[in-house]
Amino acid sequence: MLDLRQFEALRAVARTHSTAAAARQLGWSQPTVTHHLRGLARATGAPVVRSSSAGTALTPAGALWLPHAEAILDRADRAQAEVASALRDTRRSCRLGVFPTAAARLLPAVVAAATDAGVRIEVTEAENESLWAGFDALRLDAVITYETEPRGRPGGDRLFAEHFGILVARSHPLADRDQVSIAELRDESWIVGRDPDDAIDSMLHDFTRRAGYLPVEAQYSDDYRVVAAYVAAGIGIAFVPELALPVSSDDCRFVALADRVPARMVSLHTSPHLPEEIRAVLREAATRAPDVPAA
């Protein structure tokens, strides 16, 4: 079996023309140099060095090995340096995943705080399922996710509870209300998602069904920015989580629901290898970000 030390011994002999001098150069004993040269010879099926009164020289087989040995040793040195550098960078970087509706509210504060702390953040925006897949596959160091029911994921820090409500145009008659019930919205038109299995739309249908009606669907979009634009234009209202409200919008208002609606628990989960100082920066910045719901 080939060994990097065999190549080191061969290269040192080629440079010094002596097993004794090669041993001194490598900081090994002379028998150790000889041992590795013999190992390379066995793997080759031919001697790789020849000793004489003039010193030690490479055989034709050794000469054939030399450029390969030098290339392999050089690549090994570069690989070791690259891995060490990557590990140093990893200790001061974080691959963070976040679900889209939280991104606009949380990321500016999180990235700014991390940058001030000397931590580089690499962001991935994706839905919950993709975030968990990336986290479990170690492609993400930390994820900000939500759940309507606790799942017992270990190592998570609860950031805040996000409630659901109704997004209405500023000019809508309900815009000045603090609360509204689902039953009062029987005659409204709704902006809903395109996916018939969307969890939030399924909640809406459950609530309206209990109130004795099905929502009239006016338009469809899975992008909350588009949903907000439809709402602002007076095309309909929308059932949304708090974080879906545009960061700066004078055209829409979030009205709380009087009905008993489960909140989404927004949490930060981090990999065990992520330093505690980085985890603390993420946690503190996310909970102190402007306009996020109270914990």
From TrEMBL:
InterPro entries tied to this protein: LysR_HTH_N (IPR000847), LysR_subst-bd (IPR005119), WH-like_DNA-bd_sf (IPR036388), WH_DNA-bd_sf (IPR036390)
One Gene Ontology term of the molecular function aspect: DNA-binding transcription factor activity
Pfam families assigned: HTH_1, LysR_substrate
Transcription as UniProt keyword: yes
Keywords on record: DNA-binding, Transcription, Transcription regulation
Recorded superkingdom: Bacteria
Tagged with keyword Cell membrane: no
Gene3D superfamilies tied to this protein: Periplasmic binding protein-like II, Winged helix-like DNA-binding domain superfamily/Winged helix DNA-binding domain
Domain HTH lysR-type residues, every copy: 2-59
GO cellular component: protein-DNA complex
Family in the record: Belongs to the LysR transcriptional regulatory family.
Protein name from the UniProt record: HTH lysR-type domain-containing protein
